[in-house]
Design a protein that fits this description.
single chain; 157 residues; mainly alpha; 434 Repressor (Amino-terminal Domain); 10 helices; 55% helix; HTH cro/C1-type domain-containing protein; Cro/C1-type_HTH; Lambda_DNA-bd_dom_sf; DNA-binding
Length: 157
């Protein structure tokens, strides 16, 4: 069994979230986007990614291909920082994470030392993200910074 589902869960992504974020990564590498159905089939091993796609998935998750395929019992993660697809924190990322945790802007501001107005501007896409602020927020929320930068389609209910 491969570890795609496990790594997706560690990021706190739904199938749709991963499909959207990984598709951005793929497009940046000159590849076509994929759907959540494709990822579901890979997770359940109904289909298998190509050798090239295994490599791209491993790069995306920051692990070795062997670990991703579950051919290696030890987690081999790369220390090299991942370059993020977006440059602004968006409501689809930071605000959603904050709201899902039931936190107010004031609580996040007090806990991180980031001014409340600054967090609000980041969440509304009116201010570019500084790396150190992104790291503070991702550490506070306990999530991968890519989740805060997520620019997927608006979910419908």
């Amino acid at each position: 069994m491969n570890r795609i589902k496990q790594l997706r869960a560690e990021k706190g992504f739904s199938l749709r979230d991963l499909a959207n974020d990984f598709s951005i990564f793929l497009v940046q590498h000159g590849k076509k986007p994929i759907t959540n159905v494709t990822i579901s089939r890979w997770e359940n091993e109904k289909n298998s990614p190509t050798a090239e796609m295994w490599g791209l998935l491993a790069d995306y998750f920051g692990v070795s291909v062997d670990y991703l395929k579950d051919d290696c019992p030890v987690s081999v993660r790369f220390a090299k920082p991942v370059w993020y697809c977006c440059t602004t924190v968006t409501p689809m990322g930071a605000k959603r994470v904050r709201e899902r945790r039931g936190l107010t802007l004031k609580q996040v501001s007090e806990a991180t030392g980031i001014p409340l107005s600054t967090i609000s501007q980041y969440e509304n896409g009116r201010r570019k993200t500084k790396r150190e602020v992104l790291e503070k927020l991702s550490n506070y929320y306990g999530v991968d910074p890519k989740i805060l930068l997520f620019r997927g389609r608006q979910e419908t209910r």
